[in-house]
Amino acid sequence: MKPLHWGILGAAxxxxxxxxxxIHAARGAELVAVASSSADKAAAFAAxxxxxxxxxxYDALLADPDIDVVYIPLPNHLHVTWTKKALAAGKHVLCEKxxxxxxxxxxxxxxxxxxxxxxxxxxxxxxxHPQFRRARDLLADGxxxxxxxVEAAFSFFNDDAGNIRNQAATGGGGLxxxxxxxxxxxxxxxxxxxxxxxxxxxxxxxxxDVYAQFVADFPGFxxxxxxxxxxxxxxxxxxxxDKGVLRLTCPFNANVFDIAELTLENDGNKxxxxxxxxxxxYVLQVENFCNAxxxxxxxxxPLEFSRGTQHMMDMVxxxxxxxx
Length: 324
Known about the structure:
The structure is a single chain. The protein folds into two domains: 4-123, Rossmann fold, CATH 3.40.50; 129-278 and 308-319, Dihydrodipicolinate Reductase, domain 2. 33% of the residues lie in helices and 30% in strands. The protein has helices at residues 13-25, 39-44, 58-62, 79-88, 103-116, 130-140, 174-190, 281-295, 303-319, and strands at residues 4-9, 29-35, 53-55, 69-72, 92-96, 120-123, 147-157, 196-205, 208-217, 222-228, 230-241, 244-248, 261-266, 270-275. It starts with a strand and ends in a 5-residue tail after the last helix.
């Protein structure tokens, strides 16, 4: 089967260091073009993708008939606009998270996706990693009994005022950057949606949230999370039931923060440990996207799933009194 031709809108560092190489390495995909106003930045991609075409504008890349799929790593506030433009140009779209800044915007993207007849999805790589499918299956099989409590944390330190993650105008803030993982991970593994967010403590700096502590009520369990862009790096998610405890110790940055590892403690304090060294969830994400386009297979993270996470995030912002 002919590989899908991918183009990248913008020469972002994340695209250069992670997603560009992943597209190049993935089965069923071929990175053929990048669009950037900086010729030097665009040229850097040719180091791993020889023969790469460069376009000096995003519109020029969208007009390129050789492009099947567009990957969008632009600042958050541009995601909805350029996803819609790419769909209107007849391209499939994989857009970085958060794909939107509020749940109703994703409703608009779902409508645009359906009208175009193309696949559009948020680049939510963690659900493509086998540790999450394993955790979901263990939970469904009753490995920890009746789930009662989920706890998730994700933090790193970034106080650079010039970084787009710290700028309100570009849709920055910790919840949008990494809170999307602590919320979506719980939803994906449990298959449940929150009924309410009764408490959220948000701290802001320069108009963006830099610390968030919040709790949520799910139909079958209680949930609590901490997210911060002003603390020492930490990440993990724990599922606690009446018969056992399931932990993912490196759920969000596998092979960067640490090796992906799952531990299951149950049945007389027996501990099962599973690790996935060398798994690249960015490559798996691209391969799953290509497979969905080419075969019609279900994509692990459709826009409907992303809308659920964004709706939960909207609830956290509301509970924490986020500035308008």
